[in-house]
Amino acid sequence: MKKLLGIFGLLLVVCVATALMSDKFLTPFNIENLLRRTALFGVLSIGVAFVIITSGIDLSIGSVVCLIGVGLPWLLTSVKVPLALGLLIAAGVSVAIGCAHGLLITRLRIQPFVVTLCGLLIYRGVTRGFTRDQTMGFGNDFKELRWLATSRIPVPGIEGFGIPFPCIILLVVAVAAAIFLNQTIYGRYLLALGRNEDAARYSGIRTERMIVLAYVICALLSGLGGMLFVLDVNSAQPADFGNFYELYAIAAAVLGGCSLRGGQGTITGVILGTALMQVLRTMITLVDALPKNIEYAIIGAVILGGVVADELVKRFVARRKAARQLLG
């Protein structure tokens, strides 16, 4: 709870500071766009949180976003497959990617960093190959599908402002993820696995299956995110669509309290971390005094700060525990 209050307080401070430095921050148009981006990136961040909780990592998220985000309009507009089949193929590919990652990590004992780094390169390369580097989009077709990402729910009394529908999708994903993580035995298995994999295995938990499950969830939500992103912009270039999105997702999860050592994390914290990352991006865009090319430096500093803080907290807790044992 203290971590959640801390990240929420930091979010408020950054929002107030941005509002004071730019009169464009609190406009209905900007707030709506901020909510939309938070929702889209929040889906990715929740996915990677499951992997981080198991003490893993997934660097291929951006390339999965590209593969699904470019591949879906390619299937529907170039190959002319039916909409239902296209969505089924997108979901199947996402599940297959998650299974492949999990099995390579558990069966062949390859480090998650290596497996997903290779995935980052492979999926983008494959996407650029079958599209021949051509930009993909839906044009004026599939408006009923694009409604998922572009529609909004008007708020009475606030002219020009509405709740973007992706926020509703994020809410559904977040509630389902929170219930799974906190109210089911499988969620407790994931947390136990992250804290101590050997102890979890000796207690009877099938750790390999749980690791595969975590990577499948991450890949599925990455695929969902990729679909929502392309539905939002209606245009995707294979060379750069989804670039560095994994960094935003990982940074948001770390900011939200997910320990890179595993075993810790809450869905609420991840959403707050995602919102903070998007407000920081907005601050860089709107505030003239800030250089526009330091965005990635801020992301790097956020991830490093989260790791350093996690290490310091771990050492502090360990020292207190040792002191209590000596006194006891």
What does this structure look like?
This protein has 328 residues and is mostly helical. The chain has helices at residues 2-21, 28-53, 61-79, 83-106, 112-131, 143-150, 165-183, 185-195, 197-202, 207-233, 245-255, 267-286, 295-327; strands at 152-154, 162-164. It has a two-stranded antiparallel sheet. Helix 2 crosses helix 12 (267-286) and helix 7 (165-183) packs across helix 8 (185-195).
Number of β-strand runs: 2
**Average of pLDDT:** 91
Would you list the SSEs in sequence order as H and E? HHHHHHEEHHHHHHH
Strand fraction equals: under 5%
> What is the overall shape?
globular
Q: What is the count of DSSP helices, taking H or I runs of 4+ residues?
A: 13
Estimate the helix proportion, in percent: over 70%
Low-pLDDT parts are none
- Characterize the largest beta sheet: strand count, sense, and whether it forms a barrel: 2 strands, antiparallel
Give the structural class. Answer: mainly alpha
Q: In angstroms, what separates the terminal alpha carbons? A: 28 Å
Strand order of the largest sheet: 1-2
CA-atom Rg in angstroms: 20 Å
Question: What's this entry about, in short?
Answer:
The protein has helices spanning 2-21, 28-53, 61-79, 83-106, 112-131, 143-150, 165-183, 185-195, 197-202, 207-233, 245-255, 267-286, 295-327; strands at residues 152-154, 162-164. The chain has 328 residues and is mostly helical.
